[in-house]
Every structure is written in structure tokens, then in C-alpha cells.
Amino acid sequence: MKNKIIFFLLSYFFFIETNAQCAMCRAVLESEETQTVAEGINDGIVYLMAIPYILIGGIGFFIYKKYKTLKK
Questions:
Q1: CA-based end-to-end distance of the chain
Q2: Which of these, 25, 14, 24, 44, lies nearest to 6 by C-alpha position?
Q3: Is 29:41 a contact under the CB 8 Å cutoff?
Q4: How far apart are the C-alpha atoms of 13 and 8, rounded to whole Å?
Q5: 40-46 mean pLDDT
Q6: CA–CA separation, 37 and 43 (whole Å)
Q7: pTM above 0.70?
Q8: Looking at residue 54, what is its pLDDT?
Q9: Helix (H) / strand (E) containing 16
Q10: Has keyword Membrane (predicted)?
Q11: How many domains does the chain have?
Q12: What is the pLDDT of residues 7-36, one digit of tens each?
């Protein structure tokens, strides 16, 4: 337990700041005047982020319904 607390504190206080984009993506997005490409990239990120939550939520719902019908 002591090791877990030490690891948590070290990882909390000594984090490394990272960039989320590769150099080419950043260069294209920063050079764009109308920002339409940046909006498209952001929409793609939202879609990619939402799909796993929807899948896990669906699986959890079906497991819950199955568990609930087995209890009756």
C-alpha cells in the first residue's frame, strides 16, 4: 500500500507535459486560414472518443438486462 501511495504522489507531482499532435498535423492546422481543417480534426477526435463509450455502455446495458432477467 505504501508503494502505491508513493507512486501516486510521484506521478502526480512529476508529470511530463506532452504535445498531443504530431509535427505535421500541427503545421497544417496552424497554417490554415479558415480553420475548417482544424474543425474537421476536432470532430474526428470527438467521434473517436465517443465510440468506445457507446460500445462499453451498450455492453453494460445488455449485461445488466441479462443479469436482471436471471434474478427473476
A1: 40
A2: 14
A3: yes
A4: 9
A5: 83
A6: 10
A7: no
A8: 94
A9: none
A10: yes
A11: 1
A12: 887 777 766 655 555 667 777 777 777 778
